[in-house]
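Morning!

This is the sequence you dropped in the shared folder:
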Amino acid sequence: MPRVLIKNADVVTLNPAGDVLQGADIAIEGRTIAAIGAVPAGFIPDETLDATGHVALPGFWNAHTHAAMTFERGYADDLPLDRWFNERIWVAESALTSDDVYWGAALAAAEMIRGGTVGFADHYFYMDRVAEVIQQSGLKALLAWCVFGLASEVGTDLEGSLEFTHHFNGAADGRIKTILGPHAPYTCPPEFLTTVAEAARREGFGIHIHLAESEEQVMTSLKKYGRTLVAHVDHLGLFDVPGPILCAHCIYVNELDRQILTIRGANVVQCPNCHMKLAMGVTPVLDLLARGVNVALGTDGAGSNNNLDMLEEAQLAGLIQKQHLGDAQVLPGDSVLRLATRHGALATGFKESGVLAPGMAADLLLFDFDQPHLRPRHSVVSNLVHAARSSDIRHVIIDGRTVMKDRELLTLDEERILWEAERRAFGMIGRATGVVREYRS
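The structure's back. Tokens below.
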């Protein structure tokens, strides 16, 4: 891979000390950062980016999404969770095809790269087609083929999911990792979840699951199983697996739940935009962080958000906690940037990403700070957290490869993606009919 030299950037490292370097050079050798500050003697770049007036930041990690749900963007707005599922989302997905997932994921990839996302955790269907998009786009991903485990369901075979998981783990030169993806306790019978947990232990994989999204779900679990949802899946063995554990949402978690999440080393993913839009509630991020739980951020799917903008998600992550707790001092400084970068990289198993430092993965963004809304620069970090927009991102580098330069996507045919995605999304909705399954908490 070519050597890249980024000259004269202000660098928000997000290292443990929170260092912000002014006018620094970044030398990239292959897939990693060789140096920040002084360029090593003899370093001759193949590509040089003049970053004067720009701010370098680690790339964003979207730790919970459904990429191909870009096809349902704007299709299920202003509905409560039960009607959102029953009347719109599950009906639309009944007509989903493999090609739909490919083009929906390609649309998501274009959006994510433009928004500075370098990697994501996807939880959906036809994940072999999403893997194609990863290979082509240069993104990184932790992929989970969603399974329901109900006899009436189509395309939810655990064995098929395991075949995908083995085949694609480590693909795209290590940019793809895989994990098992049971949908949720309210759609997966206990016996099936036990089977998934056994398979994960036997085959060496982790688990990505929706958990404790509503108070009604928790009350139903208590009534049926005598346990909260977190305690229920722990009892079934889903937290006793060798790979990463990603728990999306975790809004309604009591003291025992929080202890379990801590002890089991689970990763909790807050999706603040989705949580507000569907009036779901607020993940107890501050308490979980205080216990040592790794809390990351996700956008969820574009059917519930309606975008995949991780900078916006980081900004909302801080605002929702300040408002909810009535405390303007919570998640100060670069805290939300860390949730959107390093914490997401750790949650998805890409431990070499999320910090700008020698030896770390060259996954980084360059923000153009020569903008009226980013002056004056009393605090570069504050401007990123409270004033910057994803459209300020000028360049995106993933694994040492420039995938967006001067706002131009270099790895994807954006014009064709826009055309294919829109016509295919309309076609999918046109084919969708009937009641597929009923959401019940």
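Headline: Confidence is low (pLDDT under 50) at residues 151-155.

More detail when I'm at my desk.
O.
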